[in-house]
Amino acid sequence: MPAAKDNRFLIVTGLSGSGKSVVSRALEDFGYYCMDNLPAKLIADFVDLWLKKKVEIDRAAMVVDIREPRFLADFPAVLREIRKRVPVRLVFLEASDEALAKRFNETRRPHPLAPRRPILEGVRLERKRLLGIRRLADEILDTSGLNIYQLKDLVGERLLRRRKPRTQVVVTSFGYKHGLPIESDLVFDTRLLPNPFYVDQLRKRTGKAPSVRRYVLGSPGTKPFLQHLARFVDFALPRFAREGKTAVAIAVGCTGGRHRSVVVAEELGRHLKKGGACDVRIYHRDLYK
After folding, report:
1. What is the Cα–Cα distance from 133 to 153, expressed in whole angstroms?
2. pLDDT tens-digit readout, 154-186
3. CA dist., res. 104 & res. 175, Å (int)
């Protein structure tokens, strides 16, 4: 049976330090049952159980590598055998010598093939020994320069053909006298703007009322405040997404959470929705307190 595009059974291997553990955790997040360092000769036994549905597992992924003493000798034959029975995909992870050496230095771990020698010697020796298995791979992922979030995105997009999730933004208005929203990623203070509370006919109304909205938006300083706020949020959100943060909580506060913060939160939400790059929800926490 040729290697297929079916993603239900994946085998992940590659160079030490190339990110196999990160990929395994990412696959678990995508609903895979993952096994780490299963001896090569036991893979066929698991495949039999999986095909006979004796294990309640829909999608499975295995991480196998050179830590298993007979991996190099046994794995090619095992892979050929199980490919006759199941559309397994072999994913090979690699990275540049420099990236791998840096990762080993940062974690202060010796290379498994060169515990008492320079790390680069181990990296180059392993790369040479794995060359034959690399040639068997259906997919080769170069993880050089990727952080864990970017690698997870790569798994989703390239390996599983999933679209990158859109950033979810929640804009919450609040009153400082009631406390900060503890889940906030970004907090902006509108107390520098004129307060409608001190206008008798506006005091009992909220930022949802047209009269309060006109007062806040027409006050000196509000327009440049909104321009600076939009510019900063437009700067920050793509960078959050690049680091793998796809849910961002923005809090906008004023004294009581009923006037200025409500108007500004609504304006910020409208700006983000107009941009279309994220999904936006607006929540007025203290509007009726």
Report:
1. 25
2. 898 888 887 777 889 999 999 999 999 999 999
3. 48
